[in-house]
Amino acid sequence: MKLYRLPKDKLKSAISSGNVTIAVYGLGKLGLPLAVTYANFGFNVIGVDINEKIVDTINSGKSYLVNEPGVDEGVRKNVSAGRLKATTNGVNAAKEADVMVSIVPTLIDDTNRPDLTYMMNSVETIAKGLTKGDIVLIESTLPPGTTEGPIREMLEKVSGLKAGVDFGLAYSPERTSSGQVIADIVDHYPKIIGGLDEHSTRAIAAIYSKIAKKGVIVVRDIRTAEAVKVFEGVYRDVNIALANELALLTEKLGVDIIEAINAANSQPYSHIHIPGAGVGGHCIPLYPYFLLDVANKQNVPLRITSIARQLNEYMPYHMVELIADALNECEKPIKNSKIGILGLTFRGDVKATYHTPAAPLIKILQEKGAKITAHDPLLSPDEIKSEFGIDSAKSFDELFRDADCIVVVTAHSLYKNTDFKKYFKLMRRPAAVVDGRHIFNPDKMDSEGIVFRGVGRVFKNNK
């Protein structure tokens, strides 16, 4: 049932009828949970992806995602009920659907410019099946101005239809985190919605009013909605950079950054973040570059945004500095030292390695001649070898045995909940631990006979 230009008094009944079909383009770590969510609320959903293996898995009633609550059950239940199916034929899906949602990856290239290849490919596919009365909704994060600019142009050029006349166009950014996507959509946050016209806005707002318990926030236009999502990411990046900068100073002052932050944040206007080994993922490392690209075109220098990104990208290099310093106290060079790395994914308990700080850290250590082994409970030995070019340890015993230095990059729950005391005894003494995620208590490391370094932490030689 077409929703665009449907009278306001008929929208609610139309959405509740079970006759609205939504096509979701991109069945990745955000797209598949979104498709499941739509189906959970009674919409007929067609998932579209270029990966045939993903499509086949979903059509068999199974999810390929790991540690994403509600998705396994949601796929099984909705495929069985006939409310969810997947396909690689995006054009036919568009022809069959009433609302087309693109939630494909938006990236940056080697020069840190926005790379919207996947987005524009999905939009072109949608346009080939676009018919009058359809609504196109974009949920991927974009540089402000993209939806009303190149996306609208592509849709109109390929379809021969006019946005705001023949079909609707809206933007509603995903505001989710891996490991809790469905809960974020349904329970945690309001949905931001900006439309090309009132008909587009009203229809998408009606859909999400049914889904999001926190309601919807309608902003004045698409460009504002695009800016909201990018601003959220830049805010986090800048505040993490501030914490990292303070940590660099506290290392020299002999002040423990965690103790100082906890005390400072007892004041209600202080919200200092936790410093660490670096910032990774599909979001925070990219969004500042989206905004910087737009600002450069407007001749507006975003000094804080730019400096913050540079500082956060420096942190893996600082980790290497801490490693070199700790090994130097052990009278060992990095070259030929056996270094064990705890954690490779960009965030604890999330199986994703995009822009992980582990990658540049490992590359630098390899260039310096270190012998590196890594442990990550979410990655297989083949995945570790393929992506990072290093060997993996199947157990803590294997990682720690004869190691000269252990480096914490990722705060997996497994690591937080493990008492490593017995494993320290397996290291080749004198030995070092460099903690980029505050897993270990610095005050207890000296008694273990371990040379300790941590981002912003107090250790024996800086007291």
Characterization of the model:
- It is a single chain.
- The protein is α/β, with parallel strands linked by helices and 463 residues long.
- The protein is 44% helix and 14% strand.
- It contains 19 helices and 16 strands.
- The strands form 3 sheets. The chain has an 8-stranded mixed beta sheet with strand order 3-2-1-4-7-8-9-10, sandwiched between helices.
- Helix 2 crosses helix 4, helix 10 (222-253) packs parallel to helix 13 and helix 13 (303-329) packs across helix 14 (358-367).
- The longest helix is centred in the middle third of the chain and has 32 residues, at 222-253.
- The relative contact order is 0.09.
- The model has no long low-confidence stretch (mean pLDDT 96).
Defining key terms:
Rossmann fold, 463 residues, elongated, alpha/beta
- Unreliable parts: none
Quick one: CATH superfamily of the largest domain? NAD(P)-binding Rossmann-like Domain
What's the β-strand tally? 16
Sheet of most strands: 8 strands, mixed
* Total of domains: 2
Oligomer: single chain
Q: Number of DSSP helices?
A: 19
Structural class computed from helices and strand pairing: alpha/beta
| CATH hierarchy, class of the largest domain | Alpha Beta
Form type: elongated
Give the overall average pLDDT.
96
Helical content stands at 40-55%
According to CATH, the fold-level topology of the largest domain is Rossmann fold
Distance between the termini: 69 Å
Cα radius of gyration in angstroms: 25 Å
Named at the architecture level, the CATH assignment of the largest domain is: 3-Layer(aba) Sandwich
Strand order of the largest sheet: 3-2-1-4-7-8-9-10
Measured by DSSP, the beta-strand proportion falls in: 5-15%
